[in-house]
């Protein structure tokens, strides 16, 4: 990341595109579970017939959106990540996932506050299980962007693909990564931000920024680790990812999520296990434990060896065993 | 306000509705004999509701094109109570009558709980989903200027699901007057009488408090049910509407009617044969 990279929230980027699209896409609706954003106020005032606040009622949010989608509408539903997929899990399972197997269900679940975005709010607001939970259901696209440029780009993808989708958006403003890589498409699933040798870090969401810092630190020690930013976890072009990873000996997966529980680590491990590649996979995240410690995100990362310095150290140990 | 008094069926229609109800009961029992896993008691309490809707000329439907844009949407939220709708949909031509005999067998389109079957709007079976989904459909239809109504059937035991009340609040506040909820108030859920689990009374007053127009009446008298539903469909008039049908779980099968646990009871083939004779 460069000092000049523009910081912006993913939600503003996505909602900005939604606002633009609503002018021509008459079947696009925006539903919120009493969760806001300044740009959302514009949608609410400019398109009052197509904006609905269902109240703090995530189950009804998903059910109402499903009913609208069954009638052919495109519906964005908007809530805090930690209350979206889990509070309404069965609604997501039955009315989005199951029905999407037999008909179009274009409901885009926009969850804001992935991982430790709400750092000091504590474990009820941390969202560490969403990838595992959503990944357990068939047919739901999982998008976990690392910057607002991708989040913005995803809007056109969301309109074009008439399937249920889960967007795990970071809550805090993040610098752009993809402003200088306009060729990257959502369908690419991932981007090898740095090509390297021996060790490759596979990161998603906010952790890609930490990983960028870590590979820089490792570089200062003469190492050249690779870095893959994985942003479309499902449907994933697994063959292409394996091809990229086959250039390395060790893969370190890094996510703000529970590991060993079906999250991104499991997706990568599952691919590697079935591939015949001799790749060692290490996984960083939170193992079987909620984060009770209070403090800013960088502090929490340091407690769980998820900070850039710790990750750089692990890269070094793996590269020079 | 809607408060349409509803129509009194003429003698010929009344006779037909009564005959149809008997026939649906016989067919439901026959299907239960073919597939004993079906929840027969739950499918016997909603018979007159389906009969009034489908044979009373109250629903806009097109069996040749089950997803016809102009159709009224019917959601059977108490999915296990949908066995009694199978013979009706087959009779009306939504799918072939021969499918009925295949219920529960390998490759059949008909299972113990309806899923992807022509004439069924959504897949239910897990309780508490139908009303919220119905709200979404009703809202979409209103925005589109459609004249179609959305009809949702739920059991009273299903009202214990919290998601139902999120949807009740939503429909009342947004004045979804193209939405009609039918509550099959058979007063029993799996483990006994609903009044002993959490008493739902006063039920119609609860709906009124949330901005609904509510009516309660006998759910097995063909003329009463037709009269009530004909005053509620097509659903309009500024408020969502609920018809609380006072029903008996296992209606028409005395051993089930008398049993608080009838939801999970099966009838023996001999019992079914005897009941079919009685309902001729």
How would you describe what is shown here?
- The complex is a heterodimer of chains A (321) and B (280).
- Chain A has helices at 10-22, 38-46, 58-70, 81-84, 89-100, 130-135, 148-160, 207-220, 238-245, 264-273, 297-303, 308-319; strands at residues 7-8, 28-32, 51-53, 74-80, 107-112, 141-143, 165-169, 174-175, 190-194, 198-203, 226-230, 232-234, 248-258, 280-286.
- Chain A is an alpha/beta fold and 321 residues long.
- Chain A has two domains: 7-175, Rossmann fold (3-Layer(aba) Sandwich); 183-319, Rossmann fold (3-Layer(aba) Sandwich), CATH 3.40.50.920.
- In chain A, the strands form three sheets. A seven-stranded mixed β-sheet of chain A has the order 3-2-4-5-7-6-12. Chain A has a five-stranded mixed β-sheet with strand order 9-11-10-13-14, with helices on both faces.
- In chain A, strand 6, helix 7 (148-160) and strand 7 (165-169) form a beta-alpha-beta unit.
- The model of chain A has no long low-confidence stretch (mean pLDDT 97).
- Chain B is α/β, with parallel strands linked by helices and 280 residues long.
- Chain B has one domain (11-278): Rossmann fold (3-Layer(aba) Sandwich), CATH 3.40.50.
- Chain B has twelve helices and seven strands.
- In chain B, the strands form two sheets. In chain B, strands 1-2-3-7-6 form a five-stranded parallel β-sheet, sandwiched between helices.
- The chains are: A alpha/beta (321), B alpha/beta (280).
Q: How do you describe this structure in short?
A:
The complex is a heterodimer of chains A (321) and B (280). Helices cover 38% and strands 22% of the residues of chain A. Chain A has 321 residues and is of the alpha/beta class.
């Amino acid at each position: 990341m460069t000092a000049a990279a523009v910081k912006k929230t993913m939600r503003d980027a996505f909602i900005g595109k939604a606002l633009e699209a609503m002018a021509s896409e008459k079947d696009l609706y925006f539903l919120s579970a009493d969760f806001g954003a300044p740009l959302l106020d514009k949608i609410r005032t400019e398109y009052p017939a197509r904006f609905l606040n269902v109240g703090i009622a995530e189950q009804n949010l998903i059910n109402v959106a499903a009913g609208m989608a069954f009638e052919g509408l495109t519906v964005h539903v908007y809530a805090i990540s930690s209350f979206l997929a889990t509070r309404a899990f069965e609604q997501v399972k039955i009315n989005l996932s199951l029905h999407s197997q037999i008909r179009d269900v274009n409901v885009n679940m926009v969850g804001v506050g992935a991982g430790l975005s709400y750092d000091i709010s504590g474990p009820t607001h941390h969202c560490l299980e969403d990838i595992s939970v959503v990944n357990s259901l068939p047919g739901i696209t999982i998008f976990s962007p690392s910057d607002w440029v991708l989040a913005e780009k995803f809007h056109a993808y969301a309109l074009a693909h008439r399937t249920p989708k889960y967007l795990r958006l970071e809550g805090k403003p993040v610098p752009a990564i993809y402003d200088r890589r306009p060729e990257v498409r959502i369908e690419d699933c991932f981007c090898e931000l740095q090509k390297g040798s021996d060790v490759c870090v596979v990161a998603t969401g906010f952790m890609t920024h930490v990983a960028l810092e870590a590979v820089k630190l490792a570089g200062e020690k003469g190492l050249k680790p690779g870095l893959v930013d994985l942003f479309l976890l499902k449907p994933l072009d697994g063959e292409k990812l394996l091809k990229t990873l086959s250039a390395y000996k060790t893969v370190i997966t890094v996510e703000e999520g529970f590991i060993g529980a079906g999250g991104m680590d499991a997706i990568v491990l599952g691919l590697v296990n079935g591939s015949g590649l001799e790749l060692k996979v290490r996984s960083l995240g939170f193992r079987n434990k909620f984060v009770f410690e209070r403090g800013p995100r960088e502090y929490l990362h340091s407690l769980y060896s998820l900070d850039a310095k710790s990750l750089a150290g692990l890269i070094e140990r793996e590269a020079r065993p | 306000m809607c408060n349409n008094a509803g129509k009194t069926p003429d003698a010929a229609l009344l006779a037909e509705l009564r005959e149809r109800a008997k026939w649906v009961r016989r067919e439901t029992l026959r299907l239960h004999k073919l597939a004993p896993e079906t929840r027969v008691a739950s499918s016997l309490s909603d018979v007159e509701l389906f009969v009034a809707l489908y044979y009373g000329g109250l629903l806009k439907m097109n069996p040749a094109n089950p997803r016809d844009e102009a159709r009224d949407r019917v959601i059977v939220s108490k999915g296990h109570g949908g066995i009694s709708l199978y013979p009706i949909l087959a009779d009306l031509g939504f799918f072939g009558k021969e499918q009925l005999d295949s219920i529960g067998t390998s490759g059949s389109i008909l299972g113990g709980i309806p899923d992807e079957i022509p004439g069924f709007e959504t897949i239910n079976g897990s309780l508490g989903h139908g009303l919220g989904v119905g709200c979404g459909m009703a809202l979409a239809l209103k925005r589109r200027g459609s004249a179609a109504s959305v009809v949702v059937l739920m059991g009273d035991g299903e009202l214990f699901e919290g998601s139902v009340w999120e949807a009740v609040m939503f429909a009342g506040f947004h004045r979804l007057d193209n939405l009609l909820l039918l509550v099959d108030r058979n007063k029993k859920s799996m483990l006994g009488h609903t009044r002993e689990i959490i008493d739902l009374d006063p039920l119609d007053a609860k709906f009124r408090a949330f901005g609904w127009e509510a009516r309660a009446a006998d759910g097995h008298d063909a003329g009463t049910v037709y009269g009530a539903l004909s005053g509620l469909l097509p659903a309009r008039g500024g408020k969502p509407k609920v018809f609380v049908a006072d029903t008996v779980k296992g209606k028409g099968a005395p051993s089930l009617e008398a049993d608080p646990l009838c939801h999970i009871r099966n009838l023996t083939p001999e019992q079914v044969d005897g009941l079919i004779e009685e309902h001729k």
